[in-house]
Design brief:
By secondary structure, this protein is mainly alpha-helical. Helices cover about 85% and strands about 0% of the residues. Helix 2 packs antiparallel against helix 7, helix 4 runs antiparallel to helix 5 and helix 6 packs antiparallel against helix 9.
């Protein structure tokens, strides 16, 4: 048996059912991640207008501890970043700015958690389905080769050829299901990945509302001290 024959037999014995089970598992995990990430981003959004108004009130009074406490009551990304800067307010504007940049990087890593999985599934699920289709087509043509009619009577040979052709077409149609399932699994994963990337960009850019407010008051404080 040649290497090609050995690989062919291995693929035929494995079949395509495990491909469909794999795609189903990937789809289930994707759905769980999509729901979890959507709830997570919703919780980390916050009411920036209210936070900015409350923060400005504390900063205008020089109550940095009160501002940190107020920000700590919010689960938003912007509040966590601004609080990181205020904790180093006594070391100057530069230190607070770098602290907020560090906090923003940390928040970004938390926001991007599990997104690599969605991107990977979106890019590779169609290829996994195509792999299943190829296995099915190999099996269909293998069946056609074994069922090829001999040199019998014309009527019997024609009937056998028609039956073999129908069997092969049915096998190919069944094999194409794997590709369809792969595309079906990939589409929501890609859509969710792109949507979540936009949500992350929006959450991080909205944090500038509070970060710039903190830096503005710290600059004013530094100038007053000088």
């Amino acid at each position: 048996m040649t290497t090609i024959d050995a690989v062919k037999q291995l693929l035929l014995q494995s079949g395509t059912s495990w491909i469909l089970w794999l795609l189903g598992s990937l789809s289930l995990v994707s759905a769980i991640i999509i729901i979890e990430r959507w709830l997570f981003y919703r919780a980390r959004q916050g009411d920036l207008e209210t936070l900015a108004r409350q923060l400005a009130g504390h900063l205008s009074a020089g109550d940095y501890d009160g501002a940190i406490t107020q920000l700590g009551q919010s689960s938003s990304v912007a509040a966590a970043i601004a609080a990181a800067g205020l904790r180093l307010a006594d070391r100057g504007t530069g230190a607070a700015d770098r602290a907020m940049q560090s906090a923003a990087a940390l928040e970004k890593s938390r926001l991007e958690r599990w997104l690599a999985y969605l991107g990977t599934v979106g890019n590779n699920a169609p290829f996994i389905g195509l792999f299943g289709t190829v296995i099915g087509i190999i099996g269909a043509f293998e069946e056609l080769g074994h069922g090829a009619p001999g040199h019998g009577s014309g009527g019997g040979a024609a009937a056998a050829a028609q039956m073999a052709s129908q069997a092969v077409m049915a096998s190919i149609a069944e094999a194409l299901v794997a590709t369809a399932v792969g595309i079906f699994v990939a589409l929501p994963a890609v859509a969710a990945y792109n949507y979540f990337q936009r949500r992350i960009a929006g959450l991080l850019s909205s944090s500038d509302v509070l970060s710039n407010l903190v830096l503005a008051y710290l600059d004013e404080h530094d100038e007053a001290v000088r």
